[in-house]
Design a protein that fits this description.
The strands form 7 sheets. The chain has a 7-stranded mixed β-sheet with strand order 12-25-26-27-23-24-13. A 7-stranded mixed β-sheet has the order 21-18-19-20-14-17-22, with no helix packed on it. Strands 4-5-6-7 form a 4-stranded antiparallel β-sheet. It is an alpha/beta fold. It folds into 3 domains: 254 residues, Rossmann fold (3-Layer(aba) Sandwich), CATH 3.40.50; 120 residues, Beta Barrel (Ribosomal Protein L25, Chain P); 84 residues, Beta Barrel (Ribosomal Protein L25, Chain P).
């Protein structure tokens, strides 16, 4: 994985526009539709639009494209604003809604009708598809295409007045039914839709289509560079056509397309994400396994790591898939210099130290940052006659490549001495209940430079702090899921460890704290109830275990 920062071709285009005097300042916009929660793909757009405006000392407008009342909700409006703030961006007084411009959009449609560039059509959706043609065959003109401007205007006014049913009529642009670009084959501009809007209520019975509203909204706001994802490239001729036929004053917005974010092991389709939520396959929009910003925030990912990730992947012209490791590495690189190290045992097995006096407690001072002991100070560990170690750190019949604790073997305890297993106590089913070990301050086996006892983590049994650890992992088993929400879901995307034990210093951690569990990963203390154990979410492992075909 290269650390070289990718080039941003959009900045080169903006530089050209400024040099030619096409614009005097840079105004971008972030235009989400309030029909779902934002995901990390939107974070790329947010960082690009707000960041680009900031780089040039310009402005970024925050505009909700709320033109479809059937799918929109104030819940989404609120969540989107919270996400943008969380990422660290501010829009000041530049918060807008496409619904602010409904009257202006209507007036512009009247202008297009009067100039002969729009007409009211009565074809059914099925007939529209038949008349549209294919990629290799031209479409056919609607039988309603040649109505006079006066007839079209009268019908359009009646559409607004509610004299027709939903779907009976719609306003179309009059462009070219033989155009090789299907988006230019008389696209719809307004449709009848009796639905209450989250801001305008029941005032409007007709609503503008996204492509029509988008370009005019940009122009109204003085946007200089309308930056869209690559799927809108074929829509750019329509964007320019609408403003041209309206004779909108220069300079007009310039649409530039970039590749959307396709992140492995995730889905970026709002429709699929909504399906996951509605079918209760996940625990809401903020389920930490989802790629939504609300989910990443709940998982414990920092906004700094998201911005770092977006900066590293850059802006491309061609769609591609980004390895999930890019995101995970950005998270690790952000957290590594920030968070304390503590010890935790996810799946504990008790170790009883033979001959240890019952009341003896050995206090050990250990730094929170082993490589920088002066950073954040130290905490006290208590070595006692009963400790917990990780069940994975012991094997009764060790495999050839297993080098940790086993009968007759010796390991070193992190920050403490050495234990050697003498006996394993098993339950009737053969599961290890308890280990009996000898303890020594120095190794009992002669050391060599090539062979030293492995080091394992531990916590004192009596003084340890209980918690619930949630081990989140990839939601899908394959790197490029097709959208099969049953066959491709990872059954191990969430594993709960209700018996997790932490070292005593963890008791002082406040809710919202991020720490590194040594050898296990980075964790986030999501909640800390007054009664009951705290809940820690695993943010990311210490390294990419999936690349090695091993899931801990």
């Amino acid at each position: 994985m290269s650390e070289e920062r990718p080039n941003n071709f959009i900045k080169s285009l903006v530089d050209e526009d400024l040099a030619r005097g096409r614009c005097m300042e840079v105004v971008t916009r972030f235009p989400p539709e309030p029909n779902g929660y934002l995901h990390i793909g939107h974070a790329k757009s947010i960082c690009l639009n707000f960041g680009l405006a900031g780089d040039y000392g310009g402005h970024c407008n925050f505009r909700f494209d709320d033109t479809n009342p059937v799918k929109e909700d104030t819940e989404y409006v609120d969540s989107i604003q919270a996400d943008v703030r969380w990422l660290g961006f501010s829009w000041d007084e530049r918060l807008f809604y496409a619904s602010d411009y409904f009257e202006k959009l209507f007036d512009c449609a009247v202008v297009l009708i009067e100039r002969g560039f729009a007409y009211v059509c009565e074809l059914s959706p099925e007939d529209v598809r038949l008349y549209r043609g294919t990629l290799t065959e031209p479409g056919k003109n609607s039988p309603y295409r040649d109505r006079t401007a006066a007839e079209n205007l009268d019908l359009f006014l009646k559409m607004r007045a509610g004299e027709f049913k939903d779907g009976d009529k719609f306003l179309r642009a009059k462009i070219d039914m033989a155009s090789p670009n299907l988006n230019m084959r008389d696209p719809a501009l307004f449709r009848i839709r009796r639905a209450s809007h989250h801001r305008t209520g029941d005032k409007w019975l007709i609503y503008p289509m996204y492509d029509y509203a988008h370009c005019i909204s940009d122009a109204i706001e003085g946007v200089t560079h309308s930056i869209c994802t690559l799927e809108f490239e074929d829509h750019r001729p329509l964007y320019d056509w609408v403003l041209e036929k309206l004779a909108w004053p220069e300079p007009r917005p310039r649409q530039i397309e970039f590749a959307r974010l396709n992140l492995e092991y995730t889905l970026m389709s709002k429709r699929k994400l909504l399906q996951l939520v509605k079918e209760n396959l996940v625990d809401g929009w903020d389920d930490p396994r989802l790629p939504t910003l609300a989910a990443l925030r709940r998982r414990g990912v920092t906004p700094e790591s998201i911005r770092l990730f977006c900066d590293r992947i850059g802006v491309a012209k061609k769609d591609s898939w980004i390895e999930l490791e890019w995101l995970e590495k950005a998270v690790r690189d952000d957290l590594n210099p920030k968070v304390k190290r503590i010890m935790a045992v996810l799946d504990p097995v008790k170790v009883v130290v033979d001959g240890w006096p019952p009341d003896k407690v050995k206090t050990i001072s250990a730094p929170y940052f082993p490589d920088e002991p002066e950073k954040m100070g130290c905490r006290d560990l208590q070595m006692t006659g009963e400790i917990y170690i990780e069940r994975d750190d012991f094997q009764l019949n060790p495999e050839p490549d297993f080098y940790r604790l086993a009968p007759g073997r010796e390991v070193r305890l992190r920050w403490s001495g050495y234990i050697k297993c003498r006996e394993a106590v098993l339950d009737p089913g053969g599961r290890v209940l308890e280990l009996r070990c000898a303890y020594s301050e120095e190794p009992t086996v002669p050391l060599s430079k090539k062979k030293r006892p492995p080091i394992i983590h531990w916590v004192p049994a009596r003084q340890s702090v209980p918690c619930l650890a949630r081990l989140y992992d990839r939601l899908f088993t394959g790197p490029r899921p097709t959208g099969d929400l049953t066959g491709e879901l990872n059954p191990d995307s969430l594993i709960e460890r209700p018996d997790c034990r932490l070292e005593p210093a963890a008791a002082a951690l406040p809710a919202g704290e991020r720490v590194q569990f040594e050898r296990l990963g980075y964790f986030y203390l999501e909640s800390k109830p007054e009664n009951g154990p705290g809940i820690f979410n695993r943010i990311v492992t210490l390294k990419d275990s999936w690349a090695r075909g091993r899931k801990r």
